[in-house]
Amino acid sequence: MTDISVDSPIPFSGDPLDYAENDRGPEHLQALLGKTSARAILLFKGRIGIGDGGRPHRIHPSDLIGHDIMSPGPIFLGMEGKRPLFAFSVVKPEEFLPEENFVSLRGIGGNLKPTDLAIAGRAKSLFAWHFTDKFCIACGQQTVSRDGGVKQQCTGCGAESFPRVNPVAIMLVSDGDRLLLGRGPGWPDGAMSCLAGFIAPGESVGDAAVREVMEEAGVKTKNPRYLFSQPWPFPAQLMIGVALDAVTTEIKIDPKELEEARWFSREEILAVFEKRGDAFLRLPRQTIAHQLVRHWLSETA
Ligand SMILES: [Zn+2]
How far apart are CA 206 and CA 226, in angstroms? Predict the structure, then answer.
């Protein structure tokens, strides 16, 4: 019998670091960088450097001296007990590890320890933010990193900005013992997932969930319930899992959003998760959709 319980923590969540939000002054960070116990993980173009034992490779921050690093320099991830942990984005990965050791978190996420995955995902999202948001949204002048990379400040008007998180509602739509799953345009044949969409300004999570299911699949739903959420670092989504009850069951897809959507029986879904059925391709375990379906299977057992 396959275990169908939800992973704890949800993949990419459960970051164990103390972010030390009130202790990020420049002198203090300089002192932390020099501590013997300090460590740094390495990224290259959003990929994470993996070392011995399949864990993120760690070096002392001073090992970066003399090497080119990407803006904004070291990001202070936080304290791991008494050990400060930093992240650097390197320019020449081969100076530290074979380039193929820098791997996408999409590809290896399921193989990393949950805490390593959470730490690496947060580092990836922070670097992505510094890479795309280099100018002040108020006056257009360049911004600089502050507080070890968790804040930016404009060099012109002084306005502060903070890392962006984009909320997405992702829905577990059920009709008794059937679940609604869909396939986006361009997805591999057979790949099916929970419907999802960005939350619009002015919407509650529940409003967005109900609207998205209607827009994408033409199904009317009610009674939104929050289940659990997941930081998804591609580049910085917050996936918010919502259960919905179907009011209508006829499907009318919006072809811009979906190529296909249908109701799957619990037995069809369970067979896929127990690797004895092929009604659709099982999503990677690190996705919240996979975890939401596990949740539904265990709740309806
Ligand atoms: Zn400005």
Answer: 8
How big is the CA angle at 4 (ends 16 and 54), to the nearest 5 degrees? 45
**Alpha-carbon span 210 to 214, nearest angstrom:** 6
Domains and CATH numbers, the chain: 26-130 (3.90.79), 166-299 (3.90.79.10)
Extended beta strands in the chain, E state: 39-44, 47-49, 58-59, 75-80, 83-89, 102-103, 143-146, 151-154, 160-161, 166-175, 178-183, 195-198, 221-232, 237-246, 260-265
Q: Is 52 exposed, middle or buried (0-12, 13-18, 19+ CB in 10 A)?
A: exposed
Over residues 260-270, the pLDDT tens digits come to 999 999 999 99
Cα 198 to its chain centre, rounded Å, is: 14
| 163 C-alpha to ligand 1 centroid (Å) | 16
- 140 CA → ligand 1 middle, Å: 6
2 CA from centroid of ligand 1 (Å) = 55
Q: What separation in Å is there between the alpha carbon of 74 and the centre of ligand 1? A: 23
> In whole angstroms, what is the distance from residue 33 CA to residue 208 CA?
43
142 Cα to the center of ligand 1, angstroms:
7
Model confidence pLDDT, tens digit, residues 57-93: 999 999 999 999 999 999 999 999 999 999 999 999 9
Centre of ligand 1 to C-alpha 159, Å, is: 5
From ligand 1's centre to the CA of 132, what distance in Å? Answer: 16
